[in-house]
Design brief:
Layout: E1 11-16, H1 21-36, E2 45-50, H2 56-70, H3 74-77, H4 81-86, E3 88-92, H5 101-107, E4 113-118, H6 125-134, E5 143-146, H7 154-167, E6 173-175, H8 183-194, E7 207-215, H9 224-228, H10 232-249, H11 258-271, E8 280-285, H12 294-298, E9 308-313, E10 325-330, E11 337-344, E12 362-368, E13 372-380, E14 389-395, H13 398-402, H14 412-422, H15 431-451, E15 456-458, H16 466-473
Parallel strand pairs: 1-2, 1-4, 2-3, 4-5, 5-6, 7-10, 8-15
Antiparallel strand pairs: 7-11, 8-9, 9-10, 11-12, 12-13, 13-14
The structure holds NADP nicotinamide-adenine-dinucleotide phosphate.
NADP nicotinamide-adenine-dinucleotide phosphate (NAP) binds near residues 17, 21, 22 and 147.
């Protein structure tokens, strides 16, 4: 199978924060891969913009080093690193000052698409948007790309939306949640809405519960001070986990088009019931030998910020009434893994002996480290000895079915940047979605603050606090094992 590369219109992409960690680790190596795939038109150019004083030659050297550092073996697969570097320019621009803006304007060619990636601290979003407008760069067809976090509560998200709306229309604003750019996340929609098989079963009559897990092995060391002002609820649940929840739970949109999909996601968020205090567990990892505890990493011995959350949510609508959604995310856990598990109910009656046991089908959507899907089906255990049942995975890994090209799918950032260039907002969050997500999370966070609640300690390398296990045990269910 040969993967199809759909050409995009010639574009100028400006990366504000073009010298930062995200640009060097994800955005620029991703663009290099698109160049290698032949997706970049001849005149397309990428302009790094930040305050540091350097010329384009020094910037190209920085990007060359970043590609070697963060793109593994890939630079050798694509011999045209020099061709990619020629597309790069650098302008020293201060988001809060006047210097550099005219030079930036002069650099922007007559390429059809103009996109501005705000890979800077959110406190600079308003300054950049304002200057783009004042310098005549915010044309009606320009696009801006915003990194998370989008606000830290409902009020700040509303204020940011309002500021951006002063200079740009909603159809020009691309709020990135890189989870939505993952191949498997889109495959989830293909599986749900491209097959007859699953949709009739996709409701509380057949689904016992759904688990969404995003587990990390790393702690917050190095950026503990920053993280401590945020916590797992703001950093992970309000955006990534809620987006996954929306895609799993939403009604079929009438078309796979931006507003049709985002309208359905919004309805899910608005149908989420408030979470009961007893249905949520927060945690912090404890010290492990010479490894620091969360509080050591946060440099605050009394920090009450959580780096682990497990919770049970309910969606009040016809499809999901009675089916709980269990969400869990945390740092310094046993393995790095992200998955969604749709656990179906048992058959209403077993025709087999009690020894055969009771079994359930589980659809598992693996997001990382490897992407793919697995459907657990019950079959007879081979061999003599009567009818003993066993669960086996029907593996739907893309590489097995689609060949080596399936391994070579663009990563989330590559795909999302190309979607910006194409002007397709389907996989980006709309302003009202972000606000609705904060409206749901704010009372939970406020409740913790009012009660002065202290997170439970858990062992580094474990599956989280004991209470998180109890959250499911109480309901006669259990978490899937955390394994990559
Ligand atoms: P970073 O490493 O601190 O980089 C910040 C960038 O902004 C640098 O290029 C810096 O360059 C530039 N900058 C700072 N002040 C500026 C100003 N006044 N005018 C123009 N440029 C300025 O941050 P990052 O990790 O790349 O993160 C960037 C954004 O992405 C943040 O909003 C972050 O929350 C988000 N994000 C990052 C990651 C990640 O993995 N890193 C993941 C998700 C989201 P100069 O100092 O030279 O100006």
């Amino acid at each position: 199978m040969v993967s199809r590369v759909i050409p995009v219109d010639p574009f100028d992409l400006v990366i504000f924060g073009g010298t930062g960690d995200l640009a060097r680790r994800k955005i620029l190596p991703g663009l290099f891969r698109r160049h290698c795939a032949g997706q970049m038109p001849e005149t397309a150019q990428v302009i790094g913009a930040a305050r540091s004083d350097m010329d384009s030659a020094a910037y190209r050297q920085m990007v060359r080093d970043a590609i070697h550092e963060f793109d593994g073996e890939r630079p050798d697969d694509c011999p045209d690193l020099a061709g990619f570097l020629e597309r790069l320019h650098y302008v020293a621009v201060d988001a809060q000052g006047e210097g550099g803006w005219q030079e930036l304007k002069d650099l922007l060619r007559k390429n059809t698409v103009k996109a501005f990636y705000f890979s800077v601290a959110p406190s600079l979003f308003g300054d950049i948007a304002e200057r783009l407008k004042n310098k005549g760069l915010a044309r009606r067809d320009a696009r801006i790309v915003l990194e998370k976090p989008f606000g830290r509560d409902l009020d700040s998200a509303k204020a940011l939306n309002k500021t951006l709306a002063t200079y740009f229309h909603e159809d020009q604003i691309y709020r990135i949640d890189h989870y939505l750019g993952k191949e498997t996340v889109q495959n989830l929609m293909a599986v749900r809405f491209g097959n007859m098989l699953f949709e009739p079963l996709w409701n509380s009559q057949y689904v016992d519960h759904i688990q969404i897990t995003v587990a990390e092995t790393v702690g917050v060391g190095g950026r503990g001070g920053y993280y401590d002002k945020s916590g797992a609820m703001r950093d992970m649940v309000q955006n990534h986990l809620m987006q996954l929840l929306c895609l799993i739970a939403m009604e079929p949109p009438s078309r796979f088009e931006p507003d049709a999909v985002r309208d359905e996601k919004l309805k899910v968020i608005r149908a989420l019931e408030p979470v009961q205090t007893q249905d949520i567990v927060r945690g912090q990892y404890a010290a492990d030998g010479d490894q620091p505890s969360y509080r050591d990493d946060a440099e605050d011995p009394r920090s009450t910020t959580e780096c682990f959350v497990a919770m049970k949510c309910h969606i009040s609508n016809w499809r999901w009434a009675g089916t709980p959604f269990y969400l869990r995310t945390g740092k310094r856990l046993k393995e790095r893994t992200s998955e969604i598990a749709v656990v179906f109910k048992e058959t209403p009656h077993s025709i087999f002996d009690a020894d055969a046991g009771r079994h359930r089908n589980i659809l598992i959507i693996h997001l990382q480290p490897k992407e793919g899907m697995e459907l657990g089906v019950t079959i007879k255990e081979p061999g003599p000895g009567g009818m003993r049942l066993v669960d086996v995975p029907l593996d739907m890994s893309f590489s097995d079915a689609l060949g080596p090209d399936a391994e070579d799918v663009p990563d989330a950032y590559e795909r999302l940047i190309m979607d910006v260039i194409r002007g397709n907002q389907t996989l980006f969050m709309r302003g009202d979605e972000v606000e609705a997500a904060w409206a749901w999370t704010d009372p939970i966070i406020e409740g913790w603050e009012e009660r002065g609640e202290v997170p439970k300690l858990y062992d580094a390398g474990s599956t989280g606090p004991e209470d998180a296990l109890m959250l499911m045990h109480r309901d006669g269910r259990k978490w899937r094992e955390i394994r990559s």
